[in-house]
Amino acid sequence: MSGFAKPLKIALGLIVIAGLIVIPMNFNRYGLFILSQWAVMTIAAMGLNLTLGYAGQVSLAQGAFVGIGAYAAAIMTTHGWPLPAAIVVAIALSFAVGWVLGYPALRVQHHYLAFVTLAFSTLAFLVFRNESWLTGGIYGISNIPRPHVFGIATNKPLPFYYICLSSLAIVSVAVWWLIRSPWGRAFMALRENPLRAQSLGIDTRRYTLMAFAIGSALGGVAGALYAPLTQYIDPVPFNLSLSLDLLMMVIVGGAGFYFGPFLGAMIAVLLPEWLRFTEGYYLMLYAIAVMGLLIWSPTGILGILDRTMAARRTKAASALRAVAKSRLETAQ
Amino acid sequence: MSDPILSVHNLVGGYGKMTILNGTTFSVPPATITTIIGPNGAGKSTVFKAIFGLLKLREGKINFAGRDVSNLSQRALLNAGICYVPQGRNIFPELSVRHNIELGGVAAGKDIDLPTRIEAALDLFPALRRKSAQQASTLSGGEQKQLEIARSLLLEPKLVLVDEPSIGLSPLMVQQTFDILKSLRERGVTVLMIEQNARSALEISDIGIVLELGQTRMVDKAERILNDPRIGQLFLGGAMEESAA
Amino acid sequence: MKSTLLAGALLAFAAAAGAHAQAIKLADVAELSGGGATVGTNWKNGIDLAIEEINAKGGVLGRKLEVTHADSQSNPGVARAQVQKALDAEPYVLLGPGYSGSVKVTAPLAAEAGIAQIMGGEAAELTQAGNKFLFRTSFGQQSSMPKVAKYIHDEMKAKSVAVVWVNNDFGRGGRDVVVKELERLGCKVVADLSTEAGQADFAADVGKIKAANPDAVFVYLNEEESARILKELKRQGVTAPLMGETTLIGQKVIELAGDAANGARGHVGLTTDAPVDLIKGFRDRFSKKYNYVPDHNGLKGYLAVYMVKATTEKMGKIDSRAFADALHGLTIKAADEPGILMDVTFDANGDIDRQSFLVEVVEGKQVVKQVLPKMK
Amino acid sequence: MSAVLEVTDIKKSFGGITAVDGVSFDVREGEILGLIGPNGCGKSTLFNCILGQLTPSGGEVKLDGKVVTGLRPSELNKLGVSRTFQLLQVFPKLSVRENLILAGQEHQGNMASRLVGRSDAGLTDTADQMIGFFKLDHLAAEPAGGLSYGQQKLLDAAMAFMGGPRLVLLDEPAGGVNPTMLSDLKERLVAINREKNATFVVIEHNMEFVMSLCSRVMVMAEGKVLAMGRPDEVRKNPAVIEAYLGH
Amino acid sequence: MSNLFDLLVAGLATGAIYALVAVGFTLLWQTSQTINFAQGEFVMLPAFLMLAAMHVGAPFWLAIILGILLSMILLGLAFKILLVDPMMRHGVLPLAIATMALAIGIKEAVKQFFSAEASPFPSIVPTGDISILGHAVSLQSIGVLVVAILAVFGLTTLLNRTSLGHQMQAAAQNPTVARIIGVPVERMILLTFLINAFLVALASLLITPIYLAKFSSGEVLGQAAFIAAIVGGFNQVRGAIAGGLLIGVLDNLAASYVSTQYRAAVPLVFLIVVILFRPQGLLGRPEERTV
């Protein structure tokens, strides 16, 4: 990424943003729905990228937090609360649950942590399904209203797409700010060397819990948008496979890269849609594409950039070494 | 000096795009202890990997006991009589001490009398015999190093490559390990060693090799290298020598 | 690099499907992968078979039928997107989905677009929300379950019943209605057991049934699970009579469960095993084309297309807006339209009325014990 | 000179094995204490008990007269106790400068201010000074993982000093470092010791390094203190020769 | 509590299958740090290979042999060479994700090329019951239990009593050193993949007559085996066996005595408790920590 000059990067960013605002105006409802879904999934994946990519805490439960956010929003808005209030509650709730789920991370790491969060994810699904008094059980919650913003109804796909897009924008800025702050640096320290981090005064407990809680809260935000987007939720979409999908988005995009989730969500949400023309084969092709991509670049799409840069650096170092003068000779 | 048992000529190689060895050349006479010294990153361990076929050579030749062994497989090298004891902890922690040693004979297949050789190896290391039924992870650091050496002796090698045997060992343990190497030399085994603890290593060595930036800077009798002021200054921590008691 | 990818994404949407003239376009959204894949695949195959037949005979009002299939992945969110996509292409009629949850999320969209939706869902509430564009292809649970409860009470003379159901919207829906009905009739539900879709080991569930010692067992699971529980019931020696729906006594279950299916009874609204010549013919054609015997979902998909044909021919024109009105209150006779297989009437809610059967498995064969006439 | 660190009767056992068995000593303000002993004698375990990485089974650690036993490593670090590690412990993907900023940031402000405040926590200048002091200038923007082993060891040490510690525990700083680089490191340590009046405890096997750097040396064997004294005294102690030094 | 006996037998029989699958799972983890999320699909596929062989006219015994061979080629050799080898060096996660994708791919392929329907599958063990202590126990359960125990016993003997087994362990515990002392590490790793493929094919043969051959039947099994492996000890063969049996029994007891709605939760809660208080698993060895 450092290959570009700064003004060029800014210009590129502006073009993309303008494109995301203007081009969908001509889209049909399906296109807008998919694009909205992309925005929502990107938010959830950004949360996971924070927890996993930056802070190195493997979580297979992000889908459950999307579910928690979605149920919070669905239950509240169907009871007449406005969506912003529901989003605040969704954030608070998933933040709190994420904080609690962070505690196992203080005891175990890596694949063990993955297993704990995986179990949590399935448990959350069982609660969504079995506690029908609250969640409507397997029947789910239907007729979830879409909000009015500044007096404009967002029942139509385009206005609601803009809600998703602006939420994505807000989250993107917040995450960008977070990762370049000392907190972001502390998160990376957790990922790269928690032991050393501790001895440098970094309160690894608090940062670990924060990484979980903030990442989960973003999952909650995504969920709170997902509910009014589909206007009906049931437990099935929030089972383990959503968590795995989100993980796939983060890894395929490039874990620990700011733009990774954008790309990863694009592949996970859009690629299957593009492949639909192959009918019965589309999921098979999608699976093959994901495997191929990972074989090509196990560090994700953005990992390719990193690799090229590392290769360039090695080459330079190697050349430098070849011409370096021996100290023994200079001493003579 | 008699014909060298090992000679490497103009080795060029590295990892990926990084070239570490830039024409390393030296030879080692039989039944000696030879120590390679040099700064971090000089390519010392890389030379060992190259000799032991763990690094694909871009150029160069390795001759061992009169035959070309460049880019042979590990199994072939082991059977030709070269053993390699890498840096750090190199045991199989969950297998018993005896099974660890036994694995040293894998390369020879069914051609050797394994039980006899295991017994012979255990005779050399009484501490290991006492603990032969225990899991290898229960051994102390020094005993683990002994286990590695014992294991490498199972094939009755002619040349042993030892990378930093003293790292993390107390001075007493270092002495014991060096004593073992000396006893190997007495049995006619050639030892090629890398040591950061260069001064002590050169004291027990016959030959010293100075490696820098992947090239051989100097090959000479160990004592002459020890006494070379430039070497002392650059590679043995000259400043330290003055303040040392 | 990001921008080019994005631009590509945006362009791909802009180039959404162009319009085709001439053929009558139907859109199908079904569960082709995920938990409902078996349901959706049967449904899809039924549709394809019907369209092939109709087109071979010259189509509808001289125009061929054409269908696009889309996979909902058994996920309501995806179903919504796919139905949205299908509706954007302005189909004549929308077919599917099969899962009630997916129907719930998509029905308002079709209604808003004014396009009739012929679906496979059986949950009671679907047709009770006043949606004027939604039609069933089979009995809703609100009409089938009372018949089951009545049979258990009247014919089996059961005072206590164990209810085993699969914990998805299908199973839960049936369970809720049947339990209500049983209690109304004065039967005691002594065991109320939820099971997981795809569950393999029923030892514990059957153990509980055995412990409850009921006069009858009502089993409401998917076909494979039905087969597994039948085997386990036999193994543990449960002797109480078994009652179920099509999913308990279908040919597929008999094939999978073998001897263990003998004696099981069920109410069958729609089955390829019905003693009706037209249905036998359908079954033969289907098995010939796809190499397996369809379940009731295959029939539903097949019927959905013939509903389109019959209604359109009745209207005498191809008019998407008028379709729903024309189908409400319509009676289609098998004599007029053999593809509908049995006489059927649609009410103002889009619910279906048709003959149904009470069947028992005897020596690996379905035997019809009772024919239940149309309700009206 | 007052004692910065007082360790009283520290014990630590794992399962049935006693790794540290009642060790007591103190470290005086401004001194460099060496800690030597055979492998497995409990040196590192002792370090980890002092630093809060492990909870001792018994005993007490006092810092400036206050009991700090059971505090977490991060809390101890904020009280001015810093350390280096036996094996390489830098943050390989962060640049050298970022590594150093990270090492100091938790000593600035509080959690909230670190979230909303400046992204470098105002430490860029301090970090650059430290970079200069350890002669890493040309590498400031390089990822730490790309540095040579010796350079990483220097960075590791530099990081330990970013928070302006009173007491630094160094675990085998010489291990795997070539002699030339090592004399550089020693020079830096001595300078910081003198200029900033920082106190050091050093675990090391390299006798030349220990003997030339330390004012006092403590020898451990089998979890107990075997000897404590000036380097030359310790070196002649028969028990130490028997258990550790040999010859 | 006559019920309890039935539950235990059923639980053990299911658990034995979990154990077979979990053992292969831990083998892959030990030799190549592969967390195989497609392990359930690996069990599902061989049955279809055998069915396919029977469809083209092979007798059952030949179909079994062909199925096992094919699964060793596809799920052992090809899986290792095409997917694991290129990614092994890049850490656990990308490979885990790739196996998730593989799981989708296998399921979809079976559905597309074979059938979305469940198919019956012949049993190698005669159906029917025998009476043990007055309880009817199905021969299938006993058959499953016996074959699974034999397979696992054979495997542990191989690993602990033979030189080949020691070489495999060496390759798993420290591949670099194993290579240096002449252990053909690549061949050992390949061998574990082949063993895994053999075990899943065996599990497939045992379980499919009961579970039926269906493209989605691997999902439940894979997750159960996964939990079993972790609970028992991720890095120990004997742990996986204990975990498998335990989860099988626990699942049945949970369904009986807790709640059918939450039966799936019990093994999961157990899993969380085990990880938090004994992360290495009940019989596992603690993984090394550097403090």
From TrEMBL, chain B:
Show where the ABC transporter domain sits. 6-238
GO molecular function term, any single one: ATP binding
InterPro entries listed in its UniProt record: AAA+_ATPase, ABC_transporter-like_ATP-bd, BCAA_Transport_ATP-bd_LivF, P-loop_NTPase
Keywords in alphabetical order, please: Amino-acid transport, ATP-binding, Nucleotide-binding, Transport
Q: Which residues form a coiled coil?
A: none
The keyword ATP-binding is assigned to this record: yes
GO biological process terms on file: L-amino acid transport
Task: Specify the superkingdom.
Answer: Bacteria
Cited function: Involved in beta-(1-->2)glucan export. Transmembrane domains (TMD) form a pore in the inner membrane and the ATP-binding domain (NBD) is responsible for energy generation.
What PANTHER family does its record include?
ABC TRANSPORTER ATP-BINDING PROTEIN, HIGH-AFFINITY BRANCHED-CHAIN AMINO ACID TRANSPORT ATP-BINDING PROTEIN LIVF
- Name used for this protein in its record: ABC transporter ATP-binding protein
Q: Which organism is it from?
A: Bradyrhizobium cytisi
From TrEMBL, chain C:
Signal peptide span = 1-21
Q: Where is the Leucine-binding protein domain?
A: 24-364
Superkingdom of origin = Bacteria
Under InterPro entries, the record lists:
BCAA_transport (IPR051010), Leu-bd (IPR028081), Leu_Ile_Val-bd (IPR000709), Peripla_BP_I (IPR028082)
Keywords, ordered alphabetically: Amino-acid transport, Signal, Transport
State the family it belongs to: Belongs to the leucine-binding protein family.
Provide the protein name: Amino acid ABC transporter substrate-binding protein
Lineage, broadest ranks? Bacteria, Pseudomonadati, Pseudomonadota, Alphaproteobacteria, Hyphomicrobiales
TrEMBL record, chain D:
Described function: Involved in beta-(1-->2)glucan export. Transmembrane domains (TMD) form a pore in the inner membrane and the ATP-binding domain (NBD) is responsible for energy generation.
Q: Which UniProt keywords apply?
A: ATP-binding, Nucleotide-binding, Transport
Q: Which Pfam families match?
A: ABC_tran, BCA_ABC_TP_C
Q: Which residues form the ABC transporter domain?
A: 5-247
Protein name per UniProt:
ABC transporter ATP-binding protein
Organism phylogeny: Bacteria, Pseudomonadati, Pseudomonadota, Alphaproteobacteria, Hyphomicrobiales
Kindly give the Gene3D superfamilies that the UniProt entry links to this protein. P-loop containing nucleotide triphosphate hydrolases
| A GO cellular component entry from the record | plasma membrane
Give a GO molecular function annotation for the protein: ATP hydrolysis activity
The highest taxon in the source lineage is Bacteria
Query: Do you know which InterPro entries this protein is assigned to?
Result: AAA+_ATPase (IPR003593), ABC_AA/LPS_Transport (IPR051120), ABC_transporter-like_ATP-bd (IPR003439), BCA_ABC_TP_C (IPR032823), P-loop_NTPase (IPR027417)
UniProtKB/TrEMBL annotation, chain E:
GO-annotated cellular components: plasma membrane
A molecular function (GO) held by this record is: transmembrane transporter activity
Q: Which InterPro entries match?
A: ABC_transp_permease, BCAA_transport_permease
UniProt KW keywords:
Amino-acid transport, Cell membrane, Membrane, Transmembrane, Transmembrane helix, Transport
Query: Which sequence ranges are marked TM in the entry?
Result: 6-28, 60-79, 91-110, 130-159, 189-212, 224-250, 262-281
Q: What topology in the membrane does the UniProt record assign?
A: Multi-pass membrane protein
Where is this protein localized, as stated in its record?
A: Cell membrane
> GO biological process: what's one of them?
amino acid transport
What domain of life does the native source organism fall in? Bacteria
Q: Which family does it belong to?
A: Belongs to the binding-protein-dependent transport system permease family. LivHM subfamily.
Q: What is the designated name of this protein?
A: Branched-chain amino acid ABC transporter permease
